Amino acid sequence: MASAPVTGRARLLVAVLLALVVTACSAAPGAGQSGAPTPRSTGSSAAGYRNPVYADDFPDPSLLHVGSTFYAFATQGDGRNIQQLTSSDLVHWTKRADALPSLPGWAQGGATWAPEVITVGGRYVMFYVERDSARGVQCIGRATSSRPGGPYVDSSAQPFLCQPDLGGSIDPNPVRDPDGHLYLYWKNDGNCCGKKVQLWGQQLTPDAARLVGRRVPLLSNTLGWQGNLVEAPEMFVHDHAHVLFYSANDYASANYDIGYASCAGPLGPCQDRSQVPLVASNEVAAGPGHCYPFALPDGSTWLLYHAWQPQAIGSTYPGRELWLSPLTWKGAVPQPVTPTTQMPAAPRP
Question: What is the domain extent for residue 311?
Fold first, then answer.
């Protein structure tokens, strides 16, 4: 049967309908780069965003901000020793090359964890975890690069830091204190072998090449919800106060959560303040942990962390996805953070 002729009014109606469809599609949320959800428009107010900001396995995240670019680093995965993402807005992320493509001779390989990078004298220093072939325990390595995205190179003959009598050393956190000194925080891996677990701190030399001064234990697992370990120390200074964030319990479970302690200075003493977790599992995020607190130039503070999908705890894919939540305070006390998928306001880098 022949089609009826299209009148001018009908053409106008079709054009209007098509415009409405295009507008609706362009405003709808969808998948961003590398699987990350795109921000959702909230009309005339600041654009919101959706969590996770990177919907793929990206465990133990940390952040480096250089110029207009954010560099995120994470534990091994996707064929890379150190995973790396970049972003200009903390919401849309692009996967990059392996930040540590070659391991040093002492490293066994296959256990490259928890990298963090700090800027020192115009260069970039990465601390990371690998298994020491000679000692058979996890230790902390040190690599450097002239570029924030690497490649980082570790030409050392042995690990930077290891505590074999305490089960090894993991989860390095290099920090430049407001007093100008550099410090390194970490965990002895005692839960690997029935030994006491503690979070530690020690001063670094100005070039971050050596540890100096006293090595100080800062915190241990003394609360029921922490299970048999605390780990992933992150020292952060807010309102002139030192706050030590940490994670605790079994990372591959919904019991893994984030707590904090207040410290009198960069090397303590520290007092655990989390009778209950600061960030806990809920119906959208399981096992939130290994957080990275940071501040933006506008004064806002944020928390980057990983979490499992509740129905996929322990999975290889999607694994531990990358989440971003605002961090609010009452004075020097961080307020509880609830993992939420739809966020009303995006960061303003």
Answer: 49-330
